[in-house]
Amino acid sequence: MGPRIGPAGEGAQMPDRDIKTTMDTESIPGEDKVSVEPWDSRPRMFHSLKFFILCHSLLQLAQLMISGYLKSSISTVEKRFGLSSQTSGLLAAFNEVGNTTLIVLVSYFGSRVHRPRMIGYGAVLVALAGLLMTVPHFISEPYHYDHSSPGDMSQDFDTSLCLTPTEVGAPAFSNDSCSSYAEAQHLTVVGIMFTAQTLLGVGGVPIQPFGISYIDDFAHHSNSPLYLGILFAVTTIGPGMAYGLGSLMLRLYVDIDRMPEGGINLTSKDPRWVGAWWLGFLISAGMVALAAVPYFFFPKEMPKEKQEIHFRLKLLASAVSQNEESPSDHSPGESLKTQDGLAQMAPDLTVVQFIKVFPRVLLRTLRHPIFLLVVLAQVCMSSMVAGMATFLPKFLERQFSITASFANLLIGCLMIPLAIVGIVTGGVLVKRLHLSPLRCGVLCLLGALLCLLLSLPLFGLGCSTHQIAGITQHPGPQPETRLFPSCAEPCACPSDDFNPVCDSSARVEYITPCQAGCTGRVVQQVLDKHQVFYTNCSCVAEGVPVSAGSCESACSHLIFPFVLLVSLGAAVASVTHTPSFMLILRGVKKEDKTLAVGMQFMLLRVLAWMLSPVIHGSAIDTTCMHWALSCGRRAVCRYYDHDLLRKRFIGLQCFFKTGSLVCFALVLTILRQQNKEAKNKATAASPAPEQQLLVAGSEKKPENSRA
Hints:
Growth Hormone, Chain: A, 2 domains, 6-stranded mixed sheet, two-stranded antiparallel sheet, 26 helices, elongated, disordered C terminus
């Protein structure tokens, strides 16, 4: 197979046109003069493909940073606005709704538009959507972490203490009933966030497909895998920076711009703590806006790399010296005209003509077995990544009792860098070893198998939920008896209050000091920090004071082995990223390449990034033991069954990894069968010169063999 260059439909005329493009851009005739004329007035760097790769890497880094930042602060957004995991997963999935509806059409018409300029327009829309995500913070009331207190009372007031009904006096504020204004405000806030996520997806439509096709069209054939590997590796830093930014922002209090008088009595370890989630969107939106500027100066078509021109001239000289035409130079262009003329003339099609020809090309692409199986394998891998990226910080918070800031720091500093190493390793292996499609399939299969094996020990890395009075049962001789059922009966405890305290001696947690029967409160200063203790607790043995906040996890020492295994699995899975892309790019026809990339991203978004967060969120909700109420409806979950949460979360991960392993095994089986058939045809061919040409071609260019 000859080198793949240029957009669809240029065929054998490309060598001459490449020479004209690099030597004298003004001599290019007719139809391309509009896109080439501005080159003279632009700086020389905008004619460099390597500079485009740098700009596109930075843009995708910023785009993935702004889209990944919500995942780093998903548990904080849940607490701030009272969302369940299913709702927050649906919110994260709405990033793909607008993307999915447009990506196929945009990818198919990619050759008829100014791709760099369209990328710039999309980036501007992404920046505006990021700014829209911050609007709920500014239109909402200040955050009240003690919801039992009326609005005119200071937060963390004595309403959490054990008081008799006569001492309480007026009935405490209850979340079971709230004004219609509060409910309407909640719906408005949630609607704004869903709209912003949809616009984020719409703005990201042209960025990745146009960038990949633009690079692959004007890059040297052998350099394309390395360029794509570098692009994917650099852009993977975006989610890492998102988690790092989330770690910094969540250390700040959510209302840092409107702090109450006298400050607050919360620390970041308190389960009621809400960080400044909205600041990260402002920072990342500004980065996307800056990265969008260079795209309005790149040309519509980039000059070919010199190595590509020299390679093609060498092939032409070899063909002329033998006085015979090379099939790789002429037959593809002729076969395109005879087999599918409408697909070849896609840039000149009207919308009606495109609608007529699109089903034919779509079915032809979907019937390709290698393409379909590789995309399904990528769907399984992406489903695993989407669920982990969305809810792994929350899982670590609940399972090991760590702060949201520390969970994001672990993911951003350990898991994301190892994933980058895996992506670079995959690209280098394809480049250096000149991997054929068969060997790419072997590499993908081994990566999926090792990733699955690394996930199995995760089922045992964790511990059960500690005892929570009134929710979990006492592990004694009478398991049916609730913990201390009557010790807090004299207290008028609000049913929807949440101010947890921990009896560290017995490892028992109470939802409020009132439910522990505490009547006093003492504030002590320890290492320049205020530590709150509650005293005179009737439910605690010997009246020992209890500390404010949830009890520490008994298996917090397992956090680093857990994250290390998850990171190694992510690194191994990332090795398959570039080889699986090359299976698609080298397996489909040249005129269908842009459509195949668009179809691939559409299926990944619909079947993985859209569904997986909702599936994982729903599975997490099924493990909840105690729900908070807001306006009479179920809001955020307060306590989870840790064992059940670990089994279902890790079980979903293993399920998707197994599906990827099966798909790659089928791909490898088909590739081996195709190789056997190709060898049989080669040995059965009668003309000796043709056999020599086939042997020479297979020795020189093993990487050009088709799937």
